[in-house]
Amino acid sequence: MMPLRRQIAEEAAMIVWEEGVADYHQARAKACERLGVSGTREMPRNTEVEAALLAWLALFATDEDRERLAFLRRTAVDVMRFFGAFEPRLVGSVLKGTAGPYSDIQLHLFSDDVEAVAIALLDHRIRYRAITRRQAGGRRDGVPGFAFDWRDVPVEVLVFPVDGLRASPPSPIDGRPVKRATVARVERLLAESAAQL
Questions:
Q1: Vertex 149 angle, CA 148 and 150, to 5°
Q2: 105: which strand partners?
Q3: pLDDT by residue (tens digit) across 88-121?
Q4: Which among 180, 184, 131, 182 is positioned nearest to 157, based on CA atoms?
Q5: 63-196: which CATH topology?
Q6: 153 pairs with which residues across the strands?
Q7: Helices marked H in the chain — which ranges?
Q8: Delimiting residues of CATH 3.30.460.10 domain(s) in the chain
Q9: How far apart are CA 92 and CA 95, in angstroms?
Q10: Residue 181: helix, strand or coil by DSSP?
Q11: CB pairs under 8 A, 24+ apart, for 55-58?
Q12: What is the pTM assigned to this prediction?
């Protein structure tokens, strides 16, 4: 029989994938509820949940799943080009390759004037809502940003100061600096995945 820790990790991974739950703590709690366990010492770490998700995708991702990821990455390139003046970087599940059916595109932009990003959106009649996201080890008041749809794809951008380009915030998954990718890097990922199809 599979160890409980691994069962929880795999169930949490499926919750992340199938339900679009981005908060791994929430996914683990939901997994425990489904498996009928509570107060266990066998709780997997975020890295174990992500490893379970990557292992599942390596075995069971369909052509449709791979095409959806490619579509999200192509869309991300379009949005990054739009925000070219703000040194955009792709982060999150679209970059990592773990984007599921409910995933959004997440970008980091860099400007000492958050309003300049809002003006760029307004100038192109893109409806948005202002957001604030807390980052581990980051500012107490959170990082400002905007959420909007780009051709029916949900996008979330966070606006860091220009000097934020030098130091990536810690990842909620493993505490290491968040991986960020330039437009050129995302285009290389697209070319690599196209060559594998």
A1: 120
A2: 155
A3: 999 999 999 999 988 999 999 999 999 999 999 9
A4: 131
A5: Beta Polymerase; domain 2 (3.30.460)
A6: 150
A7: 4-19, 24-35, 46-60, 63-82, 93-96, 114-123, 183-196
A8: 63-196
A9: 6
A10: strand
A11: 56/10, 56/13, 56/14, 56/17, 57/17, 57/97, 57/98
A12: 0.92
